[in-house]
Design a protein that fits this description.
64% of the residues lie in helices and 1% in strands. It is an all-alpha fold. It has a two-stranded antiparallel sheet with strand order 1-2. 28% of the residues are buried.
Length: 303
């Protein structure tokens, strides 16, 4: 087999793997919609593998969630957010702010552990504990890894570390702002935001302000991780693939923010097919232009 054919086969293999990975990761935010109905029952086409029966406890709950659909949404979306920040962290080997990316990574990992350990109602899930834990991790990372020599680098890095600290609070901001009785906490000033967003007893289509905050902030958190990975992945051949989860998550944020009633464009099958089609189109485009892309990357790396 000549060199050109070998390179072509390797290219097809790499792009096929990229399409599969990005399609799988991009489908995580709506995996619960693909596998289950709104009432929590499994879709008819899904084979019975006994997973639901294995996960359900004596109280009829799934890791303390009332339905399998709610459990799937929470664990899948947290894994989606984790993937974005993990990719960003692995990419930035030499960046001065690389260790600060551990803050959102630790925050979302803690959320995943809380879900899988059924500790949502324990003191481990109290906002005070999570905030104090985040603060301690921040101080430890600052002590060991924060650059202090160059004043210009110090200021820029300090700003980025502060931003990432605030970002790491997003997964449980709803716990900080509201209590479990769905009321604003006493130390939160009344700014009228909840009232201005409430129409017909719902907050932008959600049952209450706490639920809206949870859904919006978790989507925003995930978007930040994937978007930062995309912007720092300059000169990387896989960069265009990152647009797939970014665009879909941005679409979800838009729907959440302005309460778009577009059921025809929010069906899980439409999302799944579109994800695969977009990822495949990107792969085909890169396949025929990868030589030019590689030359451009090499030229930029030498400059």
């Amino acid at each position: 087999m000549d060199l050109e054919k070998t390179k072509s086969l390797l290219r097809i293999l790499n792009f096929s793997i990229a399409v599969a990975i990005i399609s799988l990761l991009s489908s995580l935010p709506y995996l619960h919609e693909v596998l289950t109905y709104e009432n929590g029952n499994m879709q008819k086409w899904v084979p019975n593998l006994g997973i639901r029966e294995y996960l359900i406890n004596s109280s009829g709950k799934y890791f303390n969630y009332s339905s399998y659909r709610k459990f799937l949404f929470n664990i899948s979306f947290n894994l989606f957010a984790f993937s974005g920040f993990l990719g960003w962290f692995v990419l930035n080997t030499y960046k001065v702010y690389r260790k600060a990316i551990l803050l959102p990574l630790v925050s979302i990992t803690y959320q995943i552990v809380i879900i899988l350990s059924s500790a949502r109602t324990s003191w481990f899930n109290q906002p005070e504990v999570k905030f104090l834990g985040t603060l301690i991790v921040t101080l430890v990372l600052v002590y060991f890894y924060f650059p202090r020599k160059n004043k210009i680098i110090f200021r820029k890095t300090a700003f980025l570390w502060c931003l990432l600290f605030l970002v790491s609070l997003l997964p449980y901001l709803h716990d900080i702002v509201t209590n479990r009785q769905e009321e604003l906490r006493s130390f939160i000033p009344f700014l009228g935001i909840e009232k201005s967003l409430t129409h017909n007893g719902q907050v932008l289509g959600w049952s209450n302000y706490r639920v809206f905050l949870f859904v919006f902030c978790t989507h925003l958190f995930a978007q930040i991780g994937w978007a930062c990975w995309f912007f720092d992945a300059r000169n990387r051949l896989f960069r265009p693939f990152l647009l797939v989860p970014i665009v879909f998550n941005l679409y979800e944020i838009t729907i959440i923010s302005i309460n778009i009633n577009a059921p025809s464009f929010n069906k899980p099958d439409w999302k799944l097919y579109t994800t695969i089609i977009i990822a495949t189109l990107i792969a085909v485009n890169l396949y025929f232009n990868s030589d030019k892309a590689l030359e451009w990357m090499e030229r930029n790396n030498h400059n």
